[in-house]
Write a structure and sequence with these properties.
The chain has helices at about 10-15, 30-35, 95-105, 120-130, 140-150, 155-165; strands at about 5, 20-25, 40-50, 55-70, 75-90, 110, 115. By secondary structure, it is of the alpha+beta class. Bound molecules: zinc ion (ZN).
Length: about 170
């Protein structure tokens, strides 16, 4: 289990907090490891607090993660980069949150708790940023050539047959 990274979200937004963190994928929770081919790689997160134009406390995040997936075609390792960014708007009043979401479907709104787990945000964003079915664009000439080398060339076989027949 990974240890949470906790901030007080309202204070962070009010004070214009800034938080940068780089973590090894290996340090994330198992629920992330389950969807990856390995625990190699790292993730970088930048989080900042601000008040939006409606003076609502908000968190802006930008995340880049380099991970390894399994290719669904050749089962080989496939490096993948997750990039995600967004704004989370904090509310202390549930009916105001409901009104705001009704007016703006795009709004990523949450009720502000005393603690906000930055690590859970990182993990969620990685999981949601992965493709449903990972496939290499081109499953690597290396794999294909190895496959070819294992099988005898059909034209070479044909040539031997012709020779022995004559
Ligand atoms: Zn592949």
């Amino acid at each position: 289990m990974s240890n949470p990274i906790l901030i007080d979200p309202l204070a962070f937004a009010r004070d214009g907090g800034q938080f940068d963190k780089e973590l090894a994928i290996a340090d994330l929770d198992e629920r992330v490891h389950e969807v990856l081919a390995s625990t190699a790689g790292a993730v970088k997160l930048s989080l900042s607090g601000f008040s939006d134009r409606l003076r609502r406390p908000s968190l802006r995040y930008a995340l880049t993660a380099n991970v390894e997936l399994s290719c669904q075609r050749c089962l080989g390792v496939m490096p993948f980069e997750v990039e995600s960014e967004g704004v989370i708007t904090l509310f202390v009043n549930e009916s105001k949150l409901d009104d705001a979401v009704a007016q703006d479907e795009e709004l990523d709104a949450i009720m502000a708790e005393d603690e906000f787990d930055v690590l859970a945000l990182i993990e969620d964003e990685i999981i949601m940023g992965l493709p449903l079915s990972a496939k290499h664009d081109d499953c690597g000439s290396e794999h294909l050539e190895r496959a070819k080398a294992d099988k005898p060339n059909p034209f070479a076989v044909l040539a031997t047959l012709k020779k022995s027949g004559s």
